[in-house]
Design brief:
Layout lengths: L11 H6 L15 E4 L3 H5 L1 H10 L7 E5 L4 H8 L4 E7 L2 E7 L2 E6 L4 H8 L6 E4 L8 H16 L6 E4 L6 H18 L5 H14 L5 E4 L7 H11 L7 E4 L3 E5 L7 H7 L3 E3 L3 H25 L4 H5 L2 H15 L8 H12 L8 H5 L2 H8 L1 H9 L5 H13 L17 H10 L4 H8 L3 H9 L2 H26 L3 H4 L1
Parallel strand pairs: 1-2, 1-6, 2-5, 3-9, 6-7, 10-11
Antiparallel strand pairs: 3-4, 8-10
Helix pairs in contact: 5-6, 6-7, 7-8, 11-13, 11-16, 11-18, 13-14, 16-21, 18-22, 20-22
The structure holds D-mannonic acid (CS2).
D-mannonic acid binds next to helix 11 and helix 15.
C-alpha cells in the first residue's frame, strides 16, 4: 500500500498481518457511549478502556465521539472509520495500538441535533465528558438537559453521566449545573412547571453523575508523532497519538446500571465509594506540579516537561513542593511513592509534552491546582515560599516573553487582560501582585485579599525579576543535608 493511503477499516487485515494489535470486534452497531470532548486525552484514555471492553465481547461500549466545536479531528476520524493508532511508551520501549472504540464522530456546534438524538437513543447507556475546565457553563448544561429531556420523553432508562475533567467533585458539579438549569427553565416557565420538576426528579432518580479521577499524560499530537505513525503503520493516520504506559481511572460507585461496576473493574478501572482522596492528590500533586513546570519552563525557554525535569533545580523544586508543602496536607498515605512515580513520568522523553500546552487556560486551572494548597498551607502556618513561587512564576509567564527575549503566545480565556496587566507592571512586583493576585475568579475571595500571601508572592516575583527563574529557585532550595 502506498504510505499516503489513509488508515481505515479496509486496512485492518493488512495491519494485523504485520503484527499490529488491531480491533477484531464488530464495529457496525449503534454506540453505547456518547463522549463529549474528542480531544487527545479521551482518545488515549477512556476510548482505550472501551476498546478493552469491546475486545472482551461486550458490545455496549462503542463510542460516538463528539467534538464540541472544532471540525478537523471529527472529520479526520470519520474518514478513517473512527480508527487511530496510539503509541504507548514505557521504559521497556514503545508499541503501537490500534483503537477501534470510536464508531462515529460529530461536532456539537455543527450537528447539535445528532448529539441530542444520540443522548436520547435506546442504545446509549453512558455519557462521558472531557470538555476542559472552562466549558463547565450554561451551554454545556443546555446540551445535556436537552438530550436528557428528549430521553425521558421517549420513556427510556436513565444514563450514567461521567465527568472526567480535572475539576474537584466533577460529577457533582455537573449534576448541580444540570439541576440548576432545569429549575431555572421551570421558573422562566420555558417548560410547564410540572414538566420541569419532573425532569429534575427523573435525572435525580434515574441518572447517575459519578465523580471520577482520570490520569494519563497525553500530549497533543505533533507532526513528528504523525510521521512516526506513518512509518509504523505504512499508512497516513491524521489522528495518531502518543502516551505513557501508566493510566488510572478511579470512579465513584454510582451507576445508572449497577452491573457496570464489574465490567469496568475487569479492564482495570478502580471503583470506590469516595473519589475525593484520589482526585485531591492528582489535582494538587500531578496537575499542580504540571502547571508550575509549565509556567517556569515557558519563562526559561524550555519546550517540554522532560526538559524541565532534567534540570536539577527544577526537579528539586517539584520534589520539595510535593514532599514538604502539598503532600502533608493530603489524605493519600503513599505520597513518597506517588511523588517518585510522578517524577519518573514527567521525565519520560517519549512524551515531549509541551509546556505551552499545559500552560493553556491556567486561569481556570489554578483554582483547582494551587488554591486549595495555599489555603491549607496558610491555615497550617506552613512556609509558603514554594507555593508563592508558583503564583509568581505564573505572573512572570503572563508577560509572554521568555528570559532569552523570545515571544510566545498565551492561550487562555483571559489572555488579553492578563497579558496587558502583566506587561504594564513588568518589573514592578508589588503592582503585578496587586493587579494579578487579587482576581477573585482565579484566587477565590479570601486569597484575593490576603495580605500575608500577597507579600510572599511579591517577594518571589521580585526574585524572579532580579535573578531569573534559576536564581529564584536557588534561593528556595533546601540543602540536601537538611532534608534528612
Ligand atoms: C495537564 C493534564 O494539560 C494539563 O493541564 O496537567 O492534561 C495532565 O497531563 C493530565 O491531567 C494527566 O492525567
Amino acid at each position: 500500500m502506498p504510505a499516503h493511503t489513509r488508515l481505515n477499516a479496509a486496512a485492518l487485515p493488512v495491519l494485523a498481518a504485520r503484527g499490529l494489535p488491531v480491533p477484531s470486534y464488530r464495529r457496525d452497531q449503534l454506540p453505547g457511549v456518547v463522549h463529549l470532548g474528542l480531544g487527545a486525552f479521551h482518545r488515549a484514555h477512556q476510548a482505550l478502556v472501551c476498546d478493552a471492553l469491546l475486545a472482551r465481547g461486550d458490545d455496549r461500549w462503542g463510542i460516538l465521539g463528539v467534538a464540541m466545536r472544532s471540525t478537523q479531528l471529527a472529520d479526520a476520524l470519520r474518514e478513517q472509520d473512527g480508527l487511530y493508532a496510539v503509541q504507548i511508551a514505557s521504559e521497556q520501549g514503545a508499541g503501537w495500538h490500534l483503537c477501534g472504540a470510536v464508531w462515529q464522530t460529530c461536532v456539537a456546534q455543527r450537528e447539535r441535533d445528532a448529539v441530542v438524538r444520540a443522548i436520547a437513543a435506546p442504545s446509549t447507556r453512558w455519557i462521558t465528558l472531557t470538555v476542559t475546565e472552562k466549558a463547565y457553563g450554561p451551554a454545556l448544561a443546555e446540551l445535556l438537559v436537552q438530550g436528557l429531556s428528549a430521553r425521558r420523553a421517549a420513556g427510556l432508562a436513565g444514563l450514567t453521566i461521567a465527568s472526567c475533567d480535572n475539576l474537584s467533585g466533577n460529577g457533582s458539579k455537573l449534576e448541580a449545573m444540570c439541576q440548576a438549569l432545569v429549575q431555572e427553565q421551570e421558573h422562566k416557565q420555558e417548560k410547564k412547571q410540572d414538566q420541569g420538576a419532573a425532569l429534575g426528579r427523573w435525572m435525580a432518580g434515574h441518572c447517575a453523575f459519578p465523580n471520577s479521577m482520570v490520569d494519563r499524560i497525553v500530549p497533543a499530537a505533533t507532526p513528528a508523532r504523525l510521521a512516526a505513525a506513518q512509518t509504523a503503520l505504512g499508512l497516513n493516520d491524521q489522528a495518531a497519538l502518543g502516551t505513557e504506559a501508566f493510566w488510572e481511572w478511579v470512579i465513584e460507585r454510582r451507576f445508572a446500571d449497577a452491573s457496570d461496576e464489574d465490567a469496568l473493574a475487569a479492564v482495570g478501572v478502580t471503583v470506590v465509594d469516595d473519589v475525593a482522596p484520589f482526585e485531591e492528590a492528582k489535582l494538587r500533586l500531578l496537575n499542580a506540579s504540571h502547571s508550575a513546570l509549565a509556567c517556569l519552563g515557558a519563562v526559561l525557554g524550555l519546550g517540554t516537561v522532560d526538559q524541565c525535569i532534567a534540570q536539577n533545580p527544577v526537579r528539586q523544586f517539584v520534589h520539595e513542593f510535593i514532599t514538604l508543602d502539598v503532600g502533608p496536607q493530603l489524605r493519600r498515605p503513599d505520597v513518597a511513592t506517588y511523588r517518585d512515580a510522578l517524577l519518573a513520568r514527567f521525565a519520560n522523553p517519549a512524551l515531549a509534552h509541551s509546556v505551552h500546552q499545559i500552560a493553556t487556560d491556567s486561569s481556570v486551572k489554578i483554582p483547582q491546582r494551587w488554591v486549595p494548597s495555599v489555603l491549607a498551607g496558610l491555615a497550617r502556618q506552613q512556609p509558603m515560599q514554594r507555593l508563592a513561587f508558583c503564583a509568581a512564576a505564573w505572573m512572570r509567564y503572563l508577560r509572554g516573553m521568555d528570559e532569552r527575549g523570545r515571544v510566545y503566545q498565551l492561550n487562555d480565556p483571559m489572555a488579553d487582560k492578563l497579558q496587558a496587566l502583566a506587561q504594564a507592571h513588568a518589573g514592578d512586583a508589588p503592582a503585578s501582585v496587586a493587579a494579578l493576585g487579587t482576581m477573585q475568579n482565579i484566587w477565590g475571595g479570601s486569597l484575593a485579599q490576603h495580605q500575608a500571601w500577597h507579600t510572599e508572592v511579591t517577594q518571589q516575583l521580585e526574585r524572579i525579576n532580579r535573578q531569573g527563574i534559576f536564581g529564584a529557585l536557588a534561593g528556595l532550595a533546601i540543602p540536601a543535608t537538611d532534608l534528612l
